[in-house]
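hey so u asked for the seq, here:
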Amino acid sequence: MTARTVLLGALLVLGPAVAGSEPFKEAPELAALVAEGKLPPVDERLPTQPLVVSPLSEIGTYGGTWRSALKGASDTGWLRRTVAYDPLVAYSFDWDDVVPNVALSVDVNDDASEFVFHLREGHKWSDGTPFTAHDLEFAITDAIQIPEYFGASRNTHLLGAKATAVDDLTLKIELPEPNGLFLKQMASVSGMWPLMYQEEYCSQFHIKYNPDADAEAKSAGLTGWPEALYLACDLDNWRDTERPTLLAWKLTSPYDGLSQQVTFERNPYYFKVDSASNQLPYLDSLQMRQSSSVDDMVLQALNGDIDFMDRHIATTANKPLFIDGQAKGDYRLFPTVQANMNTSIIQLNQNSENPALNALFNEHDFRVALSLAIDRQEIIDVLFVGQGEPWQASPRPESRWHNERLAKQHTEFDPDRANALLDGLGLTGRDAEGFRLGPDGKRIAFRLDVTSDVQPTFPDVAEMLAIYWRALGIQLDVRKSERSFVYETMRANRHDAHIWQGDGGLGDAILDPRYYFPANVESVYALLWAKSLYDPGAADALEPPPAVRRQQDLYRELQRSADPVLQDQLFAEILEIAADEFRVIGISLPPNGYGIARNDMGNVPELQPHSWIYPTPGPMGVAQLFHKRG
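ran it, structure tokens below
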């Protein structure tokens, strides 16, 4: 093990504060149970080394309920962002680091192919039984690794991994190939899966441990034991109130589409304390009302019936409404930093099956001309109420990977230069309607597939692009479709162009670099080049140009390194090449987002990154939220 690897482990151990010598304190309701002999004393419920949380603003007080809302019967995203975020290692609040959480520390070998997680002695599940490395081995080996198990495809960083419980407090994970980003992935929104499966409880649904599991599942009307295991123990299922948990609150009313409210109550064995030795969480319970529409959720917030939330309701269109209603609803708005680096990314298919379009889309100056023809400030003023600034596909200014050249190049509105660039490509011929003719003598026209399912502004942006590019002599046909159809078209590589939001603006940039080079299935401007990286055996994978291949090689090198400094250097080089290549076109930098918090809520985060990979607000440590009294 190198000094660098040991240092990484040490940093992870030293991230949070060290517990003081003060006696541990607990919620009054738990103290009463201890006095009645119904619960062990708090120091017997906590690990010998609990995780110490320094509150964002102040030491909280015990009591009260956190009220929020769920959209429909499948809004598990809010659960994963809040109550469920307690992985082995977690993101720091600012998203700059990975810090200890359930794991006390982790050791990494030279090439980032072996990770040894050290657990906290005395850590217990909510039923008081020990949490051990054997629970994690069971989850990874017998659930995530099983092909027929419904949840397997969502843990790609663990597929093929070998998990071994060296002893009760030591888990070794051996990866099939080096992955220097593994700890970041384990800290992400997907990192909670292995922590959901208590072996003693979940093994009853597994055919390996219960020979009758399949018959029992089918007698209950299920397809078999994998579905039974999925419904009882998976991260995306919150129906089983008997399942033990490591989380701050335990499910008491299921999220099954039938209950009007989903509820949780305090876990007396939760492993965190604040810097004054108070066991967390401060809040007694959670209450999530199941709503039929976003309008209903907005009304709840306006009426003061939501304590802390941003999901679904905190849109640009709703912001004036929430500002006006603050006094009546007794709430305030708090700012968040969007992880998205762009409101709209236009991807021209540079692996198109149409030879004429493919040739044009692969011309650097053609892409630059289209970019220069866009009046971004007009789009910002008309569609985004003046908020934002012209921006290409580039990490946000707050990111340590910010690249000014990549962000701002070709964002000026310069139709004269745009026309000159197209003329310079020899595209001077025009038809009777003034449209330019391509090298094949046909009108230059292509289709932009758009859906409003993700961003309602996408169709409007597309229509404005059609106007700008018409002035260049380029015909853009906007086709509005449902998201499923758009994705089906893209996956089959039958699209001409596509518009989507700008993922990868903050800490997620290095994990999801889709727009910086052809990296994954979302890089639909060059899907077949991307396949040469993520699925090189595919029959339709294409060898990319040298610059793109260089980016892919740099990313492979990055993945093989456990050194975060080297990773940053390699990623910076990838971004410099992205600026040279200019493969995709951006519109504008999204402004800060916001959320709603009741005025009596304490430790509400300010300017927290907002993302899915970093599942806002989870990394703030929601167990520190509390209601101020008096």
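The first helix runs from residue 3 to 14. The radius of gyration is 26 Å.
lmk if thats what u needed
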